[in-house]
Amino acid sequence: MDSQAVKPRDATGGAARHVGELETLYNISQILVTGSNQRQVLAEVLDALESELGMKRGMITLLSLGSDEITIEVAHNLPQSREKQIRYRVGEGITGRVMQTGKAMIVPKVSEEPLFLDRFERKKEGGHEISFICVPISIGKEAIGAISVDKVYDAAVALEEDKRVLSIVASMIANDVSTRREAALMNRVLEDENVRLRSELEDRFRPENIIGNSNAMRDVYRQIHQVAASDTTVVIRGESGTGKELVAHALHYSSPRAKRPFIKVNCAALNENLLDSELFGHEKGAFTGAIASRKGRIEEAEGGTLFLDEIGEFSPLTQVKLLRVLQERQFERVGSNKALRSNARIIVATNRDLETAVGEGRFRQDLYYRINVFPIFLPPLRERKDDILLLADHFVEQYARKMGKEVRRISTPAINMMVAYHWPGNVRELENCIERAVLISTDNVIHGHHLPPTLQTSDASDTVGTGSLEERVNLFTRDLIVDGLKRCNGNLAATARDLGATPRILRYKVKELNIDYRRYRREK
Hints:
Layout lengths: L10 H24 L3 H16 L2 E8 L5 E7 L4 H4 L3 E3 L3 H9 L3 E3 L16 E2 L2 E12 L2 E11 L6 H47 L9 H13 L6 E4 L6 H10 L8 E5 L5 H9 L16 H4 L4 E5 L6 H13 L1 E3 L6 E3 L3 E6 L3 H6 L5 H7 L2 E4 L10 H16 L5 E2 L1 H9 L5 H15 L4 E2 L6 H4 L12 H19 L4 H8 L3 H10 L12
Parallel strand pairs: 8-13, 8-14, 9-10, 10-13, 15-16
Antiparallel strand pairs: 1-2, 1-7, 2-3, 4-6, 5-6, 6-7, 11-12
């Protein structure tokens, strides 16, 4: 195995060769830039090396990720049936040695080289000796593959020149392979993350995970199961904060469209012009600032579900366009006359009185009947008192975990306050109250004084509306005593020891605060 010395040649021939090499390298750079499929790109590179530089039977091998096995990515003018069968190991043969050392090798005559394995059985071509050149494809100091070519042996040919050109091509291939591998790895990470997030969303938004066991909520669950599997348009109605978006998610993830996109549009947050662009998309130059074409939410939801929140805020013109989408499954982007088709299921929600809006002419009657195919009414929280404690416990666990606190339960006075309150903000307001309570809690219990002042002024929750210092002190004292009685099974002496007080003082406070300690005794 000898490196062949560069032979002298005339200046004219050398200049012509260099021009040919530069043209070949330029053509290869264009192949690498414009190609999409890696195997096809590398095959075209080998074609260029043969047709323009006379390098025959080229082969590109790559190191398998996570192993020392070298596989053939593409082989030119070699039996395809054997490409998948032939494998090399790092250090095995010329290719393996090049991968191991990271240094190129030239074999002037393969018949005289014992390291040349010749697994394709090509030591001679038409009775002529074959020369073999192999250079590493490296990223930094790490060899990730190799490129090799054959040439008919000619003592007058400078193989070092061919090795130099091949090394340049190898560096170009290395950048391409590295970029593709990084992109493939990133895509795999994104796919795994997408699967994980989709799984979390499905767990979070399936009907079984909507909190509430009241009769009103059971009716909602039954309606979700009835309509989820169909493509029927659903209108979710209820006050702000009742969980309309949660029901929309449950409908989507319980349907055959669960693996397709779920796209939400808050109609109340956009004016008419922005809403049209957001929903239907726009073409370049359709309006000031439209510097490029853009898909609308309807297109993004293709095959999935489009959730239109607060549909009662639609302008009359947008209502007409939406009606066409619902009836004909067609729409146009802003600034275009081309009709596009939609296969998105549409779910809408509103907290408005649509019947009144129809009577007053603010909402189209035909659109009302078109969306009102299957209405789901979400009850306000004040009408599902049985669910308040379930929801509160759920939010306590959620925010305690999020904030790293050991809050485990809610005291009885705090529960009484929550049950007595009228909750104008519904579940959203309850969640905010619990988040605040967990944040300011200093032990493992949420007490009445941790709740917002609006809840502490309710007569039904054993508090007085004036909120004086004495009343707040009594509220705090009552809270502590009740918690102690719960821990000690209603035993006054044990509760006094637990609170660091005497039985006499505790009896006095129990009588003063009108606490019935017997109700906390449990049967053994």
